[in-house]
Amino acid sequence: MLLIDIDACIGCGLCEANCAFDAIHVVDGIAEVNENCTLCGGCVDVCEAGALKIEGREREEKDGLAAWSGIWVYAECRHGRVAPVTFELLGAGRRLADLKKVPLSAVLLTDQAGDIPALLISYGADQVYVVEDQALADFTDEAYGNALEDLARQYRPEVILAGATAIGRSFIPRVATSLKTGLTADCTQLDIQPEDGALLQTRPAFGGNIMATIACPNTRPQMATVRPLVMKALAADPARTGAVINCRIAPERLQSRVKVRNFVALEGDQVNLNEADIVVSGGRGLEGEKGFALIAELAHLLDGAVAASRAAVDSGWIPYPHQVGQTGKTVSPKVYIACGISGAIQHLVGMQSADTIIAINRDPHAPIFDVATYGVVGDVFEILPKLIEKIKQARTSSI
Amino acid sequence: MDYFLTEEQQMIVDLSRQIADELIIPQRAALDESEDFPTEILDAVAKADLFGIYIPEQYGGIGAGTFEIVLALEQFGRGCVGVATAFAASALGAFPIMIAGSEEMKQKYLPDIATGSKKAAFALTEANAGSDASGIQTTAVLDGDEWVLNGTKQWITNAGEARIYTVIAITDRSKGPRGASMFVVEDTDPGFSYGVKEKKLGIRASSTRELIFKDCRIPKDRLIGREGTGFITVMKTLDKSRPGIAILGVGLGQAALDEAVTYAKQRVQFGKPIISFQAVQHMLADMAIQLEAARSLVYAAAKHIDAHPRDMSKASSMCKVFATDMAMKVTVDAVQVLGGYGYMRDYPVEKMMRDAKILQIYEGTNQIQRNVVGQELNKEYTKA
Amino acid sequence: MKIIVCVKQVPDAKDVRLDPKTNTLSREGVQSIINPYDRHALEEAVRLKEKHGGTVIVLTMGPPQAAEILRESVSCGADEAVLVSDRAFAGADTLATTYTLSQAIRKIGGADLILCGKQAIDGDTAQVGPGLAVRMDIPYVTCVRRIAQVNDKSFVVERLMDDGYDEVEVGLPALFTVVKEINEPRLPSLKGKMKAKKLAITTLTAAEIDADVAQLGLKGSPTWVVRVFAPQLKGERSMIAGTVQEQVDQLAEKLLEWC
Predict the structure, then answer these.
(1) What is the H or E stretch that residue A155 is in?
(2) Is pLDDT above 80 for B384?
(3) What CATH number does residue A152 fall under?
(4) Which residues of chain A have pLDDT under 70?
(5) What confidence score (pLDDT) does residue B354 get?
(6) Do residues A35 and A79 share a domain?
(7) With contacts defined as CB-CB under 8 Å, which chain C residues touch B7?
(8) Is residue A195 part of a domain?
(9) Which of A126, A276, B349, C114 gets the most CB atoms within 10 Å of its CB?
(10) Looking at the structure, do residues A242 and A306 belong to the same domain, yes or no?
(11) Number of domain units in chain C
């Protein structure tokens, strides 16, 4: 709990001003904490009188932490394809490794490594740990988790990064729990703390309404999953060299109690929403499947993906995998085009980290305009067809 | 105003409110437009146990009374009178069985009605028998172990959707008012079919059709109560059900007031929200006053009916007239407050105004209700 | 089948916002709700019970007021409710949480199936489900979008992946986390509400789950929040005005530049 030293407290109110949770107030010249307190420590850091302390959060000087060194990136590979977030993580990992002057390693778990290790090196890895085994043909949490855990125990990396993808978010928690270490999900920013070289992991919380920076001071490795499309990949350099380390994992560790029987791909030319640079999204204002045909056309033209608000999914105009928002997917594309979406907070939390947001809506008071980089008040059924036409023209004339 | 509900009554209000807010209100405009029956909503109502509120516990219900069903209907009426009518019509269809049915009959039908797995409907009206029920043409003749029904019922709510119908037919024309009897007809009975779906001004989510009986044969034990008691059962049924219609007026009036006040607070004319103009304020105040008076009367009438099942008529008719006339006036005024917007289908108040009208007509026109009140007064003052 | 559903009380996101003046989360009118994903987990558990028989127990770790969501769960079809509550749990991260939950589940005799929502909407970590399965040493499947087959001792389920879905088979006991697509949760029922009102909620403290204090709450949490701050608003905001054609021309110009 938060301890307040009432002799030291000067009642300055800095803690109150810096509390994001409305949990500490100065009453009669002394700070008082209430049940809203989440023990985030925001007040401790700002208290100039040194009057605040969080019990239980004393830095332990643990031996052996120094034995863990190097930055690892889990190289996600499924059905023979390396997930793009892997290259982004290598870009981010490269920067961290250079700051700490340690090697950057990629870990590849696959049934067929082929040219992938070389590809990973070209994107910045100094070395690649490869486990090549038929048992890794299908993704299973147990086989993948055990393999990564065993490698981590053997080689002791200081940091493990993975993509916040379906796979990463499924098996990385297994590894962290087995290693009894901390894991920060869905990070959007990674830094090294200058004083002690600790990894600072920043992530949105409360659906993006606040940001939290998290550290893992007493255990190793420090683990994080990172949101796709947030970090920048380096340009591939085929001339880069690196070491490929083939590793063997005990066969019983590659067994899984979950058996994959079949895979059904997304139908048609659906793009993985989490990986799309451009997302064109529709809401209640599209009034039906016809409206979605319009935004599908625009998305196709822009080489983007189609998304939807919950209202549109609930109305049966488009299936659930397209839903963005609190109970759907969280996306952070370069451009998010919201068509006929009013912008309920439940939707905003799923898309407000997009670089650029364009909103088209009839209602000038729609909350979507509060987050839109560019707002257009107008009828989607007037604007979209004209916009599609205009882009087609421009594309034809430029050829 | 605080009506000092019990914890259980408050639960009924909360649950019904949740259904109205989460399921009914988001869909009411679409249902009004498509005139589709709200099957999914009523399935959810059934899962929530609300079809069983008024049905005794031994038949799988909750065992509460008229007041509790009124509390649920108020919320549904606030959501959509069309949906609420479809729900209420099942209770209306069940009442004759509850009032006059044999123990076997109750055991056979009430549990399914309580779970909502089968809906009921009540069939009185015919082309020539509206306010004057003595004009009934439909007949039932006993033939061996079966009753044979012939005739056509008109404007039957839930027709085609219900599985259980309580139907009044003439069994002996020579006996006049004592020559009518009530029967249970099931949707699968031979010789029973439905007419086309009517096109209505309002309450379009509810289904209104004819019931057509052509040598419809049903087992002898489908007679409700004794032969010749049909009219008495009908009168008791309507006495019991009218507070339900009255409260739909209250729910609807509340919805209209909510829309009107919300709009008046945000609509700016002459540089001010229109709620700051006395002309608008007075309209809103009159709406609120009439609404609360109606609610108080309906609640009191429902409690009276639960306490005095033999003395229902006057209380029942008074509250029906007052609350439904109020609903008509308040919804018309709500459209007026919203002005041109109120007349547009983009806003919900024009539908509310259309829905309100039926409340003054069905389950006994308000003119007939005034007759009842007048006759009851006459009786009371004669006794004294 | 004995099914345990893990639920969490969270603030309703639609009410949570940052006051731009004070940079604090405005708590005014913030309602506490059952984490929306957990409602789907509960619904799936109740459906399994209705179809195949069994018991549904809802379990939550939280302050005493978290009992509210347990009652709500019972009104929606759960049979029993367990609240794990102790000051020692305060400040728990996901590792400490999974330890606490696993100890509580052991205390109540384990389960054939444990269901969790995919993630909680306040933390969005999606770590408690997998972590709990590891603690219980049972297999798990995340992001289950459909339970396709229920066999005697195994399930076939569909797990949502980024590129489609996998159909996987798993024996019991097991843990699934579910996505919203799996079902449409029901509203409470009147009988359920009456039952919930009378329900005696089992409350377990740290001592009662035989917990090692070093693994609880802040002490048992390897991750520390070092800073909480408001997200920076990105760049400028502007409205594109003019006639429809002018709006379209400006939009197209920008889009062609980026795409």
Answers:
(1) helix A141-155
(2) no
(3) 3.40.50.620
(4) 56-63, 207, 267-271, 398-399
(5) 98
(6) no
(7) 197
(8) yes
(9) C114
(10) no
(11) 1
pLDDT digits (tens, 9 = 90+) for B38-73: 999 999 999 999 999 999 999 999 999 999 999 999
- Domain match, A9 and A99 both: no
The one-letter code for the residue type at B258 is D
- Interface contact flag, C186 B47, Cβ < 8 Å: yes
Q: Which domain holds residue C94?
A: 2-225
Check B74, B210, B350, B363 and give the catalytic one. Answer: B363
Task: Say whether both A59 and A80 belong to one domain.
Answer: no
Q: Which of C39, C119, C158, C223 to mutate to test the interface with A (most CBs of A within 10 A)?
A: C223
Write the pLDDT tens digit of every residue in A334-373.
899 999 999 887 788 788 878 899 999 998 888 898 889 9
The whole-angstrom separation of Cα C31 and Cα C15 is 7
Of C13, C164, C236, nearest to A266 by CB-CB distance is C164
Statement to judge: residues A202 and A99 lie in one domain: yes
Could C181 and A321 be called an inter-chain contact, meaning their C-beta atoms sit closer than 8 Å? yes
Expressed as residue numbers, the domain containing A350 is: 273-398
Does B48 contact C at CB distance below 8 Å? Answer: yes
CATH number of the domain bearing residue C142: 3.40.50.620
The answer to whether C187 and B18 have CB atoms below 8 angstroms apart is yes
Q: CA C164 to CA A214: how far, in whole Å? A: 32
CA dist., res. A52 & res. A43, Å (int): 7
Q: How far apart are CA B28 and CA A224, in angstroms?
A: 47
Q: Is residue A267 assigned to a domain?
A: no
pLDDT, tens digit, 9 for 90 and up, residues A237-260: 999 999 999 999 999 999 999 999
Instruction: Check if C186 contacts B (Cβ < 8 Å).
Output: yes
B104 catalytic residue (yes or no): no
State whether A119 and A228 are in the same domain.
yes
pLDDT tens digit sequence for B253-296: 999 999 999 999 999 999 999 999 999 999 999 999 999 999 99
Q: What is the DSSP string of A188-199?
A: SEEEE-TTT-PE
Where a domain ends, among A10, A31, A63? A63
CB contact under 8 A, C186 and B53: no
- Do A189 and A241 sit in the same domain of this protein? yes
C-alpha separations of B5 from B11, B248, B300, C195 in Å: 9, 19, 13, 19
Q: pLDDT at position B159, please? A: 96
Is there a domain that residue A209 lies in?
A: yes
Quickly count: other Cβ atoms within 10 Å of residue C232's Cβ: 7
On whether residue A340 sits in a domain, the answer given is: yes
A15 and A51 within one domain:
yes
**For the residues B93-114, what does the mean pLDDT come to?**
97
